[in-house]
């Protein structure tokens, strides 16, 4: 298991990398022409995506680890042009992506996560039972090293907004059956400190159904936090509050993965 202390150490290292990248960006901006500055300002305008799902919609977080070969790219093009339209016929919607950007911890090492939905579990079942799907389902093994679909029916609906000027983290927890309450306490005791450091819990998925090429076990909880700036998570990990409760994450889980994400909307 990746411990909270290992997350702290590697996130601190990433801060040096981010600072170096920031200096390079500043130098480039200082040498830009007026027309380039106008174009850059237009590109920097924040975007947002509102995800509003009705009761009993099926929400899906898809973690993807693409193969990087010409053959995989060709197979991916076939999948996009043939399989995705079948999904869309049954109400599939792609809302946006959160790309891994910084240290990530876990046996699964995706490039990012897609946020998608279906009108209902029944709509997804119709897609899965479509006679055209099995051919493309098998094609996935030629595209991804692994792809993981975390699906959860939203009994009361879902309202969620993603913004391009925000930053995100995702924790995927496999709780210890004997000490699961420790992980709940860990998150509860962090909530005030998260807010203090410019973050907020925006989504928790409990016991999602997992489909994957690797036949991995379903996790017990996915927890998303939105941050006002890129260093919010780092400040949290340096805080006295975090240091006082991080042992609860260790005792409350058998495996804990952590991903630092940036939005692609």
Question: What would your notes on this structure say?
Answer:
It is a single chain. This protein has 265 residues and is α+β, with helices and mostly antiparallel strands. It has a single domain (4-264), classed as Alpha-Beta Plaits (2-Layer Sandwich), CATH 3.30.70.100. It has eight helices and eleven strands. It has helices spanning 4-30, 34-43, 70-89, 121-128, 133-139, 180-196, 232-238, 240-252; strands at 48-53, 57-66, 93-105, 112-118, 144-154, 158-163, 167-175, 199-206, 209-212, 221-227, 253-264. A nine-stranded antiparallel beta sheet has the order 8-10-7-11-3-4-2-5-9. Strands 1-6 form a two-stranded antiparallel ribbon. The longest helix is centred in the N-terminal third of the chain and has 27 residues, at 4-30. The protein is globular, with a radius of gyration of 20 Å. Residues 8-41 have low confidence and may be disordered. It comes from Pontixanthobacter luteolus. Keywords: Signal. Residues 171-253 form the DUF1330 domain. It holds the Pfam family DUF1330. Residues 1-28 form the signal peptide.
- CATH architecture field: 2-Layer Sandwich
User: Low-confidence segments, ≥5 residues, pLDDT <50?
Assistant: 8-41
Share of helical residues = 40-55%
Number of strands: 11
Assembly context of the chains: single chain
The sequence of SSEs as H and E is HHEEHEEHHEEEHEEEHHE
Give the neighbour order of strands across the main sheet. Answer: 8-10-7-11-3-4-2-5-9
Q: What separation lies between the terminal Cα atoms?
A: 32 Å
Protein name: DUF1330 domain-containing protein
Keywords: Signal
InterPro entries: Dimeric_a/b-barrel, DUF1330
Signal peptide: 1-28
């Amino acid at each position: 298991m990746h411990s909270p202390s290992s997350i702290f150490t590697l996130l601190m290292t990433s801060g040096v990398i981010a600072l170096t990248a920031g200096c390079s960006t500043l130098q480039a901006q200082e040498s830009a022409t007026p027309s380039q500055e106008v174009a850059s300002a237009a590109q920097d305008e924040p975007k947002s995506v509102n995800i509003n799902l009705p009761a009993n919609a099926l929400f899906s977080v898809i973690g993807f680890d693409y193969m990087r070969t010409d053959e995989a790219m060709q197979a991916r093009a076939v999948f996009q042009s043939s399989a995705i339209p079948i999904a869309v016929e049954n109400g599939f919607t792609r809302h946006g992506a959160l790309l891994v950007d910084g240290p990530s911890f876990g046996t699964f090492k995706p490039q990012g996560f897609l946020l998608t939905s279906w009108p209902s579990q029944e709509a997804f079942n119709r897609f899965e039972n479509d006679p055209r799907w099995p051919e493309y389902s098998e094609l996935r093994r030629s595209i991804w090293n692994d792809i993981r679909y975390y699906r959860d029916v939203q009994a009361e609906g879902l309202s969620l907004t993603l913004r391009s000027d925000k930053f995100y983290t995702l924790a995927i927890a496999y709780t210890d059956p004997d000490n699961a309450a420790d992980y709940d306490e860990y998150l509860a005791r962090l909530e005030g400190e998260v807010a203090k450091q410019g973050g907020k819990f925006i989504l928790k998925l409990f016991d999602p159904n997992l489909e994957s090429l690797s036949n991995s076990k379903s996790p017990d909880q996915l927890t998303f936090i939105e941050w006002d700036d890129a260093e919010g998570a780092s400040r949290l990990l340096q805080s006295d509050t975090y240091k006082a409760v991080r042992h609860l994450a260790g005792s409350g889980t058998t495996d804990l993965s952590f991903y630092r994400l940036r939005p692609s909307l």
